[in-house]
Amino acid sequence: MTHPLLAELAAQLPASALVTDPEKLAPRLVDERRKLHGSTLAMALPGSTEEAALIVQRCVAHGVPIVPQAGNTGLVGGATPMGDKVLLMACDRLNQVRQVDAEGYTMTVEAGCTLDEIRATAAEANRLFPLWLGSSTSARVGGLIGTNAGGLQVLRYGNMRDLVLGVEAVLADGHIYRGLHNLRKRNVGYDIAQLMIGAEGTLGFITAASLRLLPSEQGRATAMVALPDAAAALGLFTHAKAEVGEVLTAFEYIGKAALEVMTAQHGEVPQPFTPLPNCAVLIALSGSQPDNILEDRLTQLLMTASCEDAVLAQDGSQTEALWALRELIPSAQRRAGPSIKQDLALPIGAIPAFIEEAAQLVAARLPEATPVVFGHMGDGNLHYNLGLAQDADVANCEAISNEVLFDLVAKYGGDISAEHGIGRFRVAAADDRHDPVARALMRKIKASLDPQGLFNPGVLI
Length: 461
Ligand SMILES: Cc1cc2nc3c(=O)[nH]c(=O)nc-3n(C[C@H](O)[C@H](O)[C@H](O)COP(=O)(O)OP(=O)(O)OC[C@H]3O[C@@H](n4cnc5c(N)ncnc54)[C@H](O)[C@@H]3O)c2cc1C
What we know:
Elements: H1 4-12, E1 18-19, H2 22-25, E2 42-44, H3 49-62, E3 66-69, E4 87-90, E5 97-101, E6 106-110, H4 115-124, E7 127-128, H5 141-147, H6 154-157, H7 160-163, E8 164-171, E9 176-178, H8 192-196, E10 204-212, E11 214-215, E12 219-227, H9 230-244, E13 248-255, H10 256-265, E14 279-287, H11 291-303, E15 309-312, H12 316-327, H13 329-336, E16 339-340, E17 344-345, H14 351-365, E18 370-376, E19 381-387, H15 394-411, H16 427-433, H17 436-449
Parallel strand pairs: 2-4, 3-4
Antiparallel strand pairs: 1-2, 5-6, 6-10, 7-11, 8-9, 8-10, 12-14, 12-15, 13-14, 13-18, 16-19, 17-19, 18-19
The structure holds flavin-adenine dinucleotide.
Flavin-adenine dinucleotide binds at residues 32, 67-75, 78-79, 91, 111, 133-135, 138-140, 142-144, 146-147, 149-152, 200-201, 205-206, 330, 419-420, 456, 459.
């Protein structure tokens, strides 16, 4: 028998706003990492804020939990509905750019716009929306805000938290919070938008956001540098901050095992160095100066640094090829076999010592695992992944990896996630390792805004 909620929604919404066809639902019920295989009552697709409010109000009336989903590219299982009494609420039809204010350097976009779409819209107005991630074709505003996404240019421009001015959202009581604004300065008490950013869909359904824009970049220079070890990479970073800090846009670390797995699995991407170095750094400068000036500055920087070797991209296709070496590492690992993903936050200065100590501990506790280490070194964010054998007991290896690496990040003053969030996969670790007062405060905020616990149960807290 049809759930009464579905009958009500079908009567009050257009046909395109409700999906129950199992074939259409199937891709929405599996997470990006293929770890969760969920189920749902149906998928609701509001086409306006008012439709979103109506859906939430009917869910409140029937006590039906809601799982918000945007591009479904999140890496911690936060957007997968886990039960046929849960409604999946997706953003696809909320896909309008409501306003671009080029003079005021802001834009207002709906939650279903993809990152590529908003970057392209900003570019048409000769402005830059600087967030940039490997999933930019699919990740949508709702999810970028829900996860407080980071990515490849946080070093220069910050993460989503730094780029959102205001949000519009449907709260767990069905009311619409109309918090969109184009004000760079606004100091009026609790910042509700900041509360919703990184809330992973647990406090409401975001329908739109006002975002900060920046001046378009006029030029870019990109190089890959071969280095003997992570300590040399840290030295180069310190040098780059001092010499070209105001135009330093990306500083990505790639360890040797990551270069090796790329060579094995993505041989079509040229490797600039033979033999492979112990590690490489991808460094990008960008800004209001033209390419040639930035290229000169980057060349100067590399000449005064102690690099083993370096290649400077000569054109757009070489720039893309260098970035592919970094961006395709997760894909190469997936092709290579089972693996464990980590998203560790560390003080930048601790990264070399952490990498060295982690290698020893992993060798002792998981001798068959290969640390595949890469990440946003300039932000203190390491993806300390482990490649496993085909027949490995992944769950057991993951438990050991978490114990070893989470203890070690704590020792160095770091944390268990830098950008992916907590989701479903790290709730137990957060409960075990985070300050109990902070966890209790989060639960109090959740209980006050969502007393029925309808939004994304089991995620984050
Ligand atoms: C190839 C690849 C590269 C990636 N690189 C990066 C990277 O460099 N940096 C990084 O930070 N992440 C990265 N990610 C992870 C992922 O792309 C980001 O977390 C992204 O922000 C998720 O956006 P999404 O639209 O797919 O959200 P989803 O996966 O659909 O949802 C993510 C979370 O947001 C919540 N949510 C979704 N929509 C709403 C809404 N409307 N209102 C409230 N909550 C909502 C969900 O419930 C869920 O908890 C990468 C992923 C892939 C596959």
